[in-house]
Amino acid sequence: MVAKADVQKFFKAYEKIYNDAIAGNVDMDDFGAMYSTGFVSVTPAGVITGENGPQFKDVMKNGFEAYRAMGSKTMTCKDVSVMAIDEDRCVAKVEWSGEYERKDRSPVTIDFEVDYLVERRDGSLKVFGWIAGDEQAEFKKHGLL
Predict the structure, then answer these.
(1) Are residues 53 and 108 in contact, defined by beta-carbon separation less than 8 angstroms?
(2) Percentage of the chain lying above the pLDDT 70 cut
(3) Among residues 40, 60, 19, which one has the least CA distance to residue 118?
(4) DSSP states of 117-134 as a string?
(5) Residue 32 per-residue DSSP state
(6) Cβ-Cβ contacts under 8 Å for 45 (sequence gap 6 or more)
(7) Is residue 26 scored above 90 in pLDDT?
(8) Is 123 left (phi over 0), alpha (psi -120 to 50) or beta?
């Protein structure tokens, strides 16, 4: 089974790479290494499948630039719970807390959860999917968009 401690350690590393990306100081290969060869994204906007490669890294890089422009400062992994799927796969429910700065410079904190599909591949943990809520609606609700 995928150990909870290993998944927690993985998401602490993910948090660091994410925050480095928000700050504009990340090699997108490091970020791409957190993901499996293919993935599925499930949000209120729809279901998207993709492959981990140059296009994915470009999309993610653009996403981090958009988050930065919107006022994203840091993301903190507050908690991780794990539900096993099989020997090498699990669902990790990750509680995040995001710190943002509105255009008027007032701070705002947004707490949210994302369910990640995680697998052990070639000896390392990798994300192969995620299920998330309506991020854009939250940003609008808190005056970031």
Answers:
(1) no
(2) 100
(3) 40
(4) EEEEETTEEEEEEEEE--
(5) H
(6) 134, 136
(7) no
(8) left
- Structural contact between residues 78 and 111, judged by C-beta atoms closer than 8 angstroms: yes
Q: How far is CA 34 from the centre of its chain?
A: 10
Q: Is 106 exposed, middle or buried (0-12, 13-18, 19+ CB in 10 A)?
A: exposed
DSSP class of residue 105 equals: S
Lateral strand order in the sheet of 72-86:
46-51, 35-43, 124-132, 107-121, 89-101, 72-86
Single-letter amino acid, residue 55 = Q
Confidence (pLDDT) at 99? 98
Q: Which residues is 121 bridged to in the sheet?
A: 124
Model pTM score = 0.95
- What CA–CA distance (Å, rounded) separates 37 from 39? 7
Tokens 């499948």 locate to: 49
Assess contact for 117 and 91: CB atoms under 8 A. Answer: yes
**Own/partner pairs for 57-60, CB < 8 Å, 24+ apart?**
57/28, 57/29, 57/31, 57/32, 58/28, 60/21, 60/28, 60/31, 60/32
First CA to last CA distance, the chain: 41
